[in-house]
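tool_log.txt
---
The assistant was asked to compare two proteins side by side. It first ran the structure predictor on the initial sequence, then on the second. Raw inputs and outputs are pasted verbatim so the downstream comparison step can read them without reformatting.
(1)
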Amino acid sequence: NMATVNVDDTDTQLNEAISSLNFRSSKRIDLLKEQDLAIKCLLKEKDVLAVLPTGFGKSLVFQVFAVVKSLDSASWNGCVLVICPLKSIIADQIEEASSLGLTAVELESLDMFENLPRLPDILFALAEAVCADGFRDALKKRQDIHLVVVDESHTIETWADDLPNNTTSVA
C-alpha cells in the first residue's frame, strides 16, 4: 500500500519534486493545473482518468508522481508500471524519463519482471506482456508496484482483438 499523504503535504511534496526535476533536467518544468490536480489525486490514492489532448504532458503526471514518491524514500520502495500499446511509444517514454533523471526500463518478459531485484522508477510494458499468462499472478506477489498507468487507453479497443488473451483483461 502507498503511504497516506497528508493533504497539506501534497503542495510541498509537489514543489520539492518539481525543484528536483528542474535541477536534474535541461528543460524547465511547470505543471499545468490539470497535471497538478491529477498528481495530487494520485498522491491521495485516488483513481485518475486524465483525458487530455496530444502533447499536453500526460506522461509528466506519472513521472512527477514517481519523483514525489522517491523523494519520500521512507514510504516508497517501488515503481510506476506503464502499459503502452506500441514499442515506439515505450522507446520515446524511456528517453523522456531518462532526460528527467528517472530510471526507466522496458519489461521484456515475465521472467525479467519476476527476477528484477529492484525495480526502476518507471517500468514500461506492452499490453501483450501484461496480458500474458502468469503476469497478473506475478504482479499480485510484488509489493513494489504502486501505480499502474494505461497509456493511450483510448486505443485498447482497436488493438485488443489482435492480441492473445484479449487485452481487455488489462483492466
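(2)
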Amino acid sequence: KLLELNSSQMLIYWTYFTEIRGEIISSAGINMDFNQDKGERHPWQSFNRAPHKPLLMLAICRGFSAGRITDCYVRPTPELVADFQHLSAMVDGKKREFRLPFFHISRDGWWWLMRHDGNNSTNDKIPKSMKGIREAYSAAILTDNLLPWLTDLNRREELIQTILTKYFDPS
C-alpha cells in the first residue's frame, strides 16, 4: 500500500511516522529535539538544519555497535571522530568539526562533560580545537535515560532509525 501513495501522501505519512517514532523515544525520557541552527547554509539533506548533533549521535551508536564504547563514558577518540567524519561526508561530502557537537550536545541534556580537573563544565566556553577538547575533557558522561537506548541492540536500532527519520531526508 505504501508504494501506491503519491508524493504528498508520502510526505504526510513520513511526517506522521516521524512524530510517532519521536514520541516513542520521548516517552522514555529522551529529548529527541536537538537545538539546531537552521538556514540555507546547511544541507538540504538535513532539511537545512545543522546536521552535526544527529551525526555525532549516529557515530556514538556506531561506537556502541562496534564495541568501542561500552559504558556511559564517551571519549573523544580518533575512532569516534573518524566515524563522525565518515557520516558527515555521506550527507553532502563536507567535513565538519567534531568539537562543536561534542561540546554543544551537553547543552541539550544528552550528557555532561567531564573535565580532567574535576571542575563543573557548565559555564565553559567551547575550546577552539580538537586538542583543546582533549585537553579539557576526558569524556562526556551519558545520561541515565540515554544509556539504555545505546547499550541494548534493539533500542539502539530504534534510536538510529528515529534519528535518520527525523533529521535526514530519505532520498
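---
observation on (2): Confidence is low (pLDDT under 50) at residues 1-29. DSSP finds seven helices and three strands in the chain.
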